[in-house]
Design brief:
- The protein is of the alpha+beta class.
- The chain contains seven helices and ten strands.
- Strands 1, 2, 3, 4, 5, 6, 7, 8, 9 and 10 form a ten-stranded mixed sheet that branches.
- A hairpin with a 2-residue loop joins strand 7 and strand 8.
């Protein structure tokens, strides 16, 4: 693992008010992988229009637990919006799993969704459609431009906190009231 990936993998990116890109304004993204070629993450505070039941039905999988079927699927970012990304606690290995750190993993293979539909999936899980990507040096540039703050990832924020509270809570994890940060972009 390079020094660069150790720095930002398993970190939350918290959009500052000056970031007005519609894909990322007021967003929180978990960085899942970061190396000299760039970074990949999943936005963890934006609901999509789909439930997990909708997604599993499209895959011809029947959900045994109605509460699981009603779980909101996140809009994980503008890259590969047709692809599912399952953020979950660790333990079991699936066909295509990336270990993020601190017991967190990201899986993109069908086997985890099949297990979830049968009631045998991970205890803590978030499903997103799409991900976020940054080219080589892009994330570092955006951090230097004060578009983002970083904070350590934590289970409560990722798996328990309501989506609408995650942006402010992520800032609070590092002692910042994000609603009080002034947007200085474009001011002389």
């Amino acid at each position: 693992m390079s020094a660069i990936s150790a720095k930002f993998s398993n970190q939350l990116l918290i959009a500052l008010p000056a970031l007005n890109d519609p894909h990322f304004a007021r967003s929180v993204a978990l960085i899942c992988q970061h190396d000299e070629e760039g970074a990949m993450g999943v936005v963890v505070n934006r609901a999509s229009e789909y439930t997990l039941g909708d997604v599993l039905a499209q895959m011809n999988l029947e959900v045994r637990d109605p509460a699981l079927g009603n779980q909101i699927v996140l809009n994980g970012g503008p890259v590969h919006p047709e692809r599912g990304f399952v953020l979950h606690d660790g333990g079991r290995q699936w066909d295509s799993t990336l270990a993020i750190g601190d017991g967190l993993a990201l899986t993109t293979s069908r086997d985890i969704l099949e297990a979830m539909a049968e009631g045998a999936g991970p205890e803590h899980v978030v499903v997103a459609l799409g991900c976020a990507g940054w080219g080589a040096g892009q994330l570092e540039y955006e951090l230097g431009e004060n578009s983002w703050l970083t904070a350590p990832a934590d289970y409560e924020l990722l798996f328990a906190l309501p989506l609408e509270q995650r942006w402010q809570a992520a800032g609070g994890r590092i002692g910042v009231d994000i609603t009080r940060v002034t947007d200085y972009s474009g001011h002389a």
